[in-house]
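Worked problem 6 (solution included).
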Amino acid sequence: MGGGTSLNTRQPRADFPAERACAAYCLFASASCVALRPPGWVWIAAAHGAVCAIAVAASRVRASRWRAVNWGRAIVPVVLFGPLYGATGRITAGLPWRVLHGPVEAADLALFGGQPSMYLAERFSWLALSEALHLAYFSYYLLLMAAPIHLLASRRDAEARYAVLAGSATMFVCMAFYIWLPVSSPYYLYPPLSPPLSDGVFYRLVHAVSGRGGVDGAAFPSSHVALSGVSAAFAWRSSRRLGLAVVVPALGIVFATVYCRFHFAVDSIAGLALAVAACGVYRPLDMRRDARPTA
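Solution. The predicted structure is:
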């Protein structure tokens, strides 16, 4: 318990904890696939099992002396979000129940007296607002690595690994929900925004991306809100300037998910709650929990 002993010294195999989180999720997804047996389940389960095995093996390898190699290892779990997220839609094909939305839709009705995902855009039908919120929604893809990249560039590698761990674990929890409790979203249930809101550049950009990479059933909780919240928290602790730059679009994402009809309001509230929980769980693991953020 000596004060001068680092976490890496005490736990020689804990250099890249997100790799173990990735392995755990892939094992869960593979087991889910075997249990549900969707079309092509053997190949889907085998692919997840292979990623699990590789992640386990990688987690036992110490950090390299070459920082570029460590940078690559740090971001690999985030790179895997796309294919692993897309696979949830194939796994849920084996569920005995269909994609759900009724309870979430009813919760929105009870809480807000209607469907915010429908009436917000109708009440505030401003092209400038729509474009700003669609831009915020798209910024999600840039926010994911804001804190880790800043920390790596500042040679605070251990902190970067725990920032990636918090984001990865949050995403994997979301994907576990998508497999066993798939909830459809207004994007698939309701008509899209109408002109002039649908005439914007960022509207077309976001819908082009969603049309190619979206998964019907991946709505509750909102991973956009959950991960942007975690990213904002770690960015704020990393640097006040970076934190301000990330917090603003992260707040925009909370409203954009509903206004732009990608999520029910309850999806976004659940995502926000998950972000708060993730930051609470991983705060003690942050290597600089007692240090002040840099300016």
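Discussion: The mean pLDDT is 86.
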